[in-house]
Amino acid sequence: MENKHPYSELGYKIFFKIKPFLKKILRIKVVGVENIPLEGGCIIAANHRSHFDPPVINIVSPRPVIFLAKKELFEVPVLGWFIKKAGTIPVRRDSRDTAVIKKSISLLKEGFVIGIFPEGSRARPGEFRKPQPGVGYLIEKAKVPVIPVLIEGTDKVLPVNSKFPKLFKYNIDVIVGKPIKFEGISSYEHIAEKVMHEIRKLKGERHG
């Protein structure tokens, strides 16, 4: 039977079974997970500092999150196989990939969750990069709730150029904000800036 989902259903069933174990060994603490809708299409927009960010978001999310990732990652042994099974959408960074936008919007209308990193690439530890205008374009066209997420600590667990994670040494904090509204915002650039502003604001939230 053809898989109706863009990801491996069996793979995600197994993944969801072991999520409590992964959350414990990775020392993940999450606040505000109730802000992620339990049904309907939505976009999770997070800051980006490590290749560990996508799995961490999927560990804390009550629903599978389909990420957009640079095409080059699909060529990496083992990692490429895993992200394909996870339904990850390849993106060509050297051009405006309209096919990716169309596919993302189609999945959102079908009720799936799309994960994006507005910065486009990983930022330095403790820093934020300028968001990409294409993020605003996707958000404006999709017209679904956008959930801002702040991730801290993944850049210590799996720093840039590291092949293996440093387990049991650092904590990973995830703060999920309330859905963002975009009434009165006139340009894609302003939408992207608004998203990053809301992500940065989460840094001041206290953990419970």
From TrEMBL:
One of its GO terms (biological process) is phosphatidic acid biosynthetic process. It catalyses: a 1-acyl-sn-glycero-3-phosphate + an acyl-CoA = a 1,2-diacyl-sn-glycero-3-phosphate + CoA. Residues 42-154 form the Phospholipid/glycerol acyltransferase domain. One of its GO terms (cellular component) is membrane. One of its GO terms (molecular function) is 1-acylglycerol-3-phosphate O-acyltransferase activity. Pathway: Lipid metabolism; Phospholipid metabolism; CDP-diacylglycerol biosynthesis; CDP-diacylglycerol from sn-glycerol 3-phosphate: step 2/3. Keywords: Acyltransferase, Lipid biosynthesis, Lipid metabolism, Phospholipid biosynthesis, Phospholipid metabolism, Transferase. Its EC number is 2.3.1.51. Belongs to the 1-acyl-sn-glycerol-3-phosphate acyltransferase family. The HXXXXD motif is essential for acyltransferase activity and may constitute the binding site for the phosphate moiety of the glycerol-3-phosphate. This is 1-acyl-sn-glycerol-3-phosphate acyltransferase. It comes from Sulfurihydrogenibium azorense (strain DSM 15241 / OCM 825 / Az-Fu1).
